[in-house]
Structure formats: C-alpha cells, structure tokens
Write a structure and sequence with these properties.
Elements: H1 13-22, H2 26-30, H3 41-47, E1 49-52, E2 58-63, E3 69-76, H4 90-97, H5 110-131, H6 136-151, H7 158-175, H8 181-202, H9 209-216, E4 220-226, E5 231-238, H10 242-252, H11 261-277, H12 280-292, H13 306-311, H14 314-324, E6 330-336, H15 340-351, E7 374-380, E8 385-392, H16 400-411, H17 417-423, E9 428-436, E10 443-451, H18 457-473, H19 478-497, H20 499-512, H21 518-527, H22 531-541, E11 547-554
The structure holds zinc ion.
C-alpha cells in the first residue's frame, strides 16, 4: 500500500489539487456546484451530515448521485509525525498489517496461530538481544537475512538455512566481529528456530481473506495510504454492502492481528528501495528534510529509517496501534448512494462498539528557530535537482491562505513565474513549488527545479533564488490573480466530483482543521487574499536565515535528461 499517499511526497495528489483550488474566488464557487449537478456549495453543504458517536468516532455522510455505489473511508489522524526515534516508519508498516485481518479474518485457526506468533515474538526478542553485541554492520546483515528469509517463508528448511548462515558468519569475521563459536552457534540455533516458527505460522494464514471478502461484495479500489499526518483506508462498494464493510472495518479497528510482520517488512524495505534509495527525487527529499528539520519528526521520511524497519517487533506495532488508532483519531466518511438514517444507525452500531480510549499522545518537540542557511548535497547518477525550503507555520495559521496563493503564483501552470522565468528561458527543465511535508505542525514552503543540460546547479540555484526574491516585490497583477483563481476553481470542481476524493477531503478537514466545513471556508479565505498579502508572505518567510538548500549532484553525465514533470511536488512515499 502507499506510504506516501502520494505522494504524497508531501502534499498528496489530492491535496495538491485542493490547494490549487483554494485560490478560486468564492463567487466562482457558487457556480461550482458542478460538483454535484448544479447546486451551489451552500446547498451542497446542507446535504452533508456529520455526528460524533459516544466513543468519539466521528462520522460524515454525503448522499449524492444516482449510481448505487458508495465510497467509504476510515481515516485515522496518525502518521509518521507521531513516531519516535527507533520506530520511524511504523505508521506505514501498521497500515500494511491492517490488511492481514483479525482473530476472525485472515486465519484458519486463530487459537493455534496465536501461540505460534507468541513463540516467534519470544525468539525474535532473543535474537534482538544477542545482536546488540554485534558491530552495527553485522547487526544489519543479520536482520536483513531474517527479512529475506521470511519473504520465501514456505521454502524454509534447516538444511537450506545453513548456506546463508555460513555466509553471514563469514561476513561477521570479515567485518571484524569477534563472536565466539559458542555465541555464533547459539545465534544460529535461534535464527533456525525462528525461521521454522515463521513457516509454521504461515500455514495458519488465510491469505488475503479481507480483500477477498471485500471483492466478493463487489468492492473496488481497496487501498490505503500513510502520510506524515494521517493514515487512510479506502474502498468503493455497492451501496447495499455498507453493513458488510462496517462490520469488517470496525473489527480491524478494534482487533488487529499484525500477522506476517516479517514478510511485510520485506515489502516495505522494497518500497523504500524503489522510492527513496534508488529514486533521485526521493533521495534528495530525504536529505533535504533531514537538513531542514533538526528536532521535529517531519525531518524523517514517512517510510522511516531502514534500520528501524528491520528492528520492528509485533509489540512495537501493537503499541502504536493501541496508542493512536483510538476513536478520537478516527473519522468514517461515506459519500454516494447512502441512506442517511439507515447509515447512521448502522455505523453507530458497528463503530460504536470500539471502546473509548484516552487521546493519543501528540509530539511535543518543536523545531527551534533556524539561525542560518542550511545546505545538503547528495551525489547520485541522475539528472541534477535543486531544492529550496523555508520554514512556514502549520495550516491552522492565519497566513496559510496567502501562502497558498503565493505557491500558485510561483509555480502553478505554464503562465506561472517559475515556468516563465526558468523553464521558458531554457534555464530549467522543470520548476515547482509546494508546501509540506505535513500540515498539522510547522512545515516548509518548498521550491524545486531541474537544470537544463548546459546549466550548472549553481547557476540554477542563483536563478531560482532570484525568482523567489522577486516574489517579495512584485505582487500579482489583477490578471495574474484572476488566472490563478480560474485554475483553482477548475481544480476544486474536478476534485469534488469524485466521491472518494470528496470523502477524503471532508475527513481531512475534519481531522486537521477540526471541521469539515473548513474545506469550504478556506476557499472563501483564499479568495479574499490580496496581492499585497502575497508579497508580504514572501518578505516574511523567504529569508536567508530561514532557508535550506539541497542539491542532487549528478555523478555521471546525463545522457537523456528526464523531465520529472511541471510543476512538481516532491515525491512522496
Ligand atoms: Zn506501503
């Protein structure tokens, strides 16, 4: 499943669209009803019903359309920002495991499986204990072997383990680890026992039963994504299947069994490899975030550190689940052919069973004020990239509407400042701007660009910074603002036409702005932004002391420069 929602490098795709839409004028929105057959947004809002269950789960229902289908989401206000050192990426790992089922789904014999899972946990704890004596290079080698073994778990046998274990021992010696024969034999025995238990547990797994149940009911688009601030589970179903969905979904939000952790670690490691370790944009973004944030958890990518992924235990996963998948963080949204009265009863009955729980802990670490430019470089055989970021406040801050307009003026479309000055001029292949990585806490205003073949990264940085500087003194003209507004309007209409996207946006505003109605209020606020406010934002935040600059430096001549896309946001997990 997606760790970055999208992309979600930062803003996920949806959010990018809505952000763009925010610049739309309120009067334009009155015509927007296109979102639903011609009514105004005011009328449209009246159809939306929201309520809170006794346990604090929030429900949003939006009936519309004639097709007998519904888009259902379960939204949890938790993501990588809620992680602490040592378990980075666990929100995303948990999202994968949420599809593995519960005591009643995903198993052929839960009682027997539970005992084997407990034995696996005990053995893994022992292995983690022994590995602490190893050099760090050996530790990674050992845990990587375990992750690899579990991906081919059905083929595990004691004879087959001998070769990889012998190779591991040889590597230990080569790296300078001084493990005695007795110590290595004990480790070898633990790994063998652990691997055989993982194979035993696998035999109890009813593979993909959750997905099969949804598929049998006619469900489509079953998926999920995790970002810095949120984890969202989504599916579309025939409207007659709301109860089946509510039954399955409420079960996994109360009783998750994180089975097949070992196997899913390997899936996540592969995602990390593809999207961060061997992806130019992903690599640079990881370095950029690490440079820009010295204290706040936004400095770590959603996917998490490789070593943390290797070390997760089922206890880590369950602990995060119990702390953060609580009713106060949970929003259920259904959009489409939904009978409000029936859905209210049904969702109250199923999601109301989730026990009330204390609010989850919020990260209290604040990013200290930056006191000087920060820079980072990554060398990689790919097209060079320049990324520039400035710290800005969280989305609830009153500067947000003007910052959104500023972003659009800078980089939205082929008439934008960046495209005109950098791409059309031949300096850059692409140039973009966005805000991120998250929204709940202070974040960054980010600009990125790729140089043309005969332009150095130094030259591109100078040109990009010059354009950013110009934003302070050149307010958008009435024509420029109007153009951006028209573009936003089109974007918002497009977004809200999709039942699934509307469900996600409503839940997002309910979670991150405390009220789904902010989706519409924000449109109004953005429409009132003046040209002077736009330049004031640039002057306030675009200072050298508040700036982070990262370069991806090509370690080989680019043969055929690949254009990443214009404008682009940083890639997301
Ligand atoms: Zn994933």
């Amino acid at each position: 499943m997606d760790s970055f929602g999208r992309r979600n490098l930062s803003p996920h795709p949806l959010r990018l669209g809505i952000f763009a839409a925010l610049a739309a004028s309120w009067c334009c929105c009155a015509a927007a009803p296109a979102a639903d057959g011609g009514s105004s947004f005011d009328e449209f809002q009246k159809r939306i019903v929201s309520f809170k269950l006794e346990n604090d789960v929030r429900v949003i229902l939006c009936p519309r359309g004639d097709a007998p289908v519904i888009s259902c989401i379960t939204y949890v206000k938790t993501g990588s920002v809620d992680e602490v050192a040592g378990i980075t990426g666990i929100a995303h790992q948990l999202e994968h495991l949420a599809f593995k089922g519960t005591p009643r789904i995903g198993t052929t014999n839960y009682e027997a499986e539970r005992k084997v899972l407990a034995e696996i946990d005990a053995l893994y704890d022992k292995i983690l204990d022994r590995q602490r004596k190893l050099l760090s290079s050996s530790r990674e080698g050992l845990l990587t072997l375990l992750a690899k073994l579990s991906s081919g778990v059905a083929a595990i046998d004691p004879e087959g383990l001998k070769a990889p274990l012998a190779a591991l021992r040889a590597r230990f010696s080569k790296d300078g680890d001084r493990l005695s024969d007795a110590e290595f034999s004990e480790l070898e025995s633990l790994v063998t026992q652990w691997a055989l238990k993982v194979r035993e547990a696998e035999a109890f797994v009813a593979q993909n039963q959750y997905a099969h149940e949804i598929g049998r009911a006619g469900g489509t688009g079953l998926n999920a994504f995790t970002s810095e601030d949120r984890t969202v589970y989504l599916v579309s179903l025939p409207s007659s299947q709301l109860e089946l969905w509510a039954s399955l979904e409420s079960d996994r939000f109360m009783n998750i069994v994180p089975r097949q952790l070992e196997k899913e670690k390997q899936v996540v490691l592969e995602e990390r490899r593809m999207r961060t370790e061997t992806n130019a944009f992903g690599k640079l973004y990881e370095s950029f975030l690490g440079a820009a944030f010295k204290a706040h958890p936004y400095g770590v990518e959603v996917i998490g550190h490789r070593s943390d992924i290797l070390n997760y235990t089922r206890a880590n996963v369950e602990s995060f689940y119990r702390a953060h998948y609580v009713p106060q963080n949970t929003i259920v949204a259904v959009v489409g052919d939904v009978d409000v009265a029936k859905a209210r009863d049904l969702l109250t009955s199923y999601f109301g069973k989730i026990p009330a729980a204390p609010a989850s802990p919020e990260p209290h670490t604040a990013e200290p004020k930056q006191e000087g430019e920060r820079r980072s470089e990554v060398e990689y055989p790919a097209q060079p990239i320049v990324m520039v970021g400035f710290h800005i406040p969280e989305r609830k801050h009153p500067d947000t509407p003007a910052l959104k307009v500023l972003t659009e003026v800078a980089a939205s479309g082929r008439a934008s400042r960046f495209y005109t000055a950098l791409v059309k001029s031949g300096t850059a292949l692409s140039a973009g701007a966005s805000m991120g990585p998250g929204e709940r806490y202070p974040r960054l205003w980010i600009a990125n660009a790729e140089p043309s073949a005969d332009v150095s990264v130094e030259q591109l940085e100078d040109a990009l910074l010059a354009e950013i500087e110009k934003l302070k003194g050149a307010p958008p003209s009435p024509e420029e603002l109007a153009r951006v507004q028209a573009r936003y309007r089109m974007d918002v209409l497009r977004e809200l036409k999709s039942n699934m996207r509307l469900a996600i946006e409503l839940a997002d505003y309910e979670a991150l702005a405390d009220d789904w109605r902010e989706l519409f209020r924000e449109l109004d606020a953005v429409a009132k932004v003046t040209p002077e406010q736009v330049t004031a934002m640039a002057a306030k935040y675009f200072t050298k002391n508040n700036r982070t600059v990262s370069w991806l430096i090509s370690t080989q001549p680019a043969e055929a420069p690949a254009i990443l896309g214009v404008p682009s946001a940083p890639p997301k997990p």
